[in-house]
Design brief:
Length: about 130
């Protein structure tokens, strides 16, 4: 069973829907149906959603494969929860400024570190 991956993928899906909704609202406000037009807030919303859907599939696949491989539940929860919090931080940081923010930086670096840890742990599990 993959209940842990199901849980974190469900959380990520809710976040993706929320961010997609924000894109829709920003499109309505700027009356821009395609692209971002001249709207900085629309571009920020698009990139916030886009960035999540660029990283989350690999992270959730890795989490699922580690779960199938029998990795300890506590480790899986740690990886899943840190990744989810980092994606929230990134989205928040991007929503408050088009410039770099501490939230965006921590969210990005944290996501990369979690994904790197999952990849390296996956290689370790395979070798051992």
């Amino acid at each position: 069973m993959m209940e842990i991956t199901l849980f974190y993928t469900s959380l990520i899906t809710l976040l993706a829907i929320f961010l997609a909704y924000k894109v829709g609202i920003a499109r309505g406000r700027s009356k821009t149906l395609l692209g971002e037009g001249d709207s900085s807030s629309l571009l920020q919303a698009i990139r916030s959603h886009g960035n999540l859907v660029e990283y989350a599939p690999l992270a959730m696949i890795m989490l699922g494969l580690l779960e199938i491989s029998g990795v300890d539940q506590l480790k899986l929860h740690l990886l899943g929860s840190v990744f989810f919090v980092c994606r929230i931080l990134h989205a928040y940081g991007l929503s408050i400024s088009s410039e770099s923010t501490p939230y965006r930086m921590v969210g990005t670096l944290g996501s990369w570190i979690v994904m790197l840890a999952m990849a390296l742990y996956g290689i370790y599990v395979y070798i051992i």
